[in-house]
Amino acid sequence: MVAVVKSQEELLTELQTLRLRLEEAEETLRAIAAGEVDALVVDGPDGEQIFTLQGADHPYRLMVENMREGALTINQEGIIVYCNDSFAALVGKPVERVVGSSMHDYVADVDHPTFAGLISSESLSSNKAELRLVNASKDLTPVVVSMS
Question: What ranges do the domains of the chain cover?
Fold first, then answer.
């Protein structure tokens, strides 16, 4: 075994690098413990792998993802930030194309005022209305929309 002799400058550089790595590892662990992380991307021998973390919301998430009713989350502008497979099937597009699009694209033109009233409501209670959704084939599907 050969002993490697490092200069003081090399040792200081190595120490600084290790400190930065430790800070990053500690910040990652803090974020995981605080529930700020949903998944980890790990680079392995077969490429990147995604490991999802389970929290208290896991049973609820499974229920929403597997129910037959369409479920989605939209922001104040009507942009879809989450949808389940059932909603994607209802509008005839894959989930990846629905998320990030505008809900206005799926509401029939005649129902836009009703939908605008739903998302602009200041009420903290649930709002419900009948709308028609437009799918990829331009067919209309009547639905009852409930928002809170």
Answer: 58-147
CATH superfamily of this structure's domain 58-147: PAS domain (3.30.450.20)
Sequence length of the chain is: 148
Whole-number CA gyration radius for the chain: 24
137: nearest Cα among 77, 74, 72, 93: 93
Helix (H) or strand (E) holding 129: strand 127-134
Give this prediction's pTM.
0.60
Contact 104, 77 (CB under 8 A): no
Nearest to 102 by CA among 135, 79, 82, 125: 79
Instruction: Encode the chain (148 residues) as per-residue pLDDT tens digits.
Output: 677 888 999 999 999 999 999 999 999 888 888 878 877 888 888 888 877 777 667 777 788 888 899 999 998 888 999 999 999 999 999 999 999 999 999 999 999 999 988 887 665 566 889 999 999 999 999 999 988 7
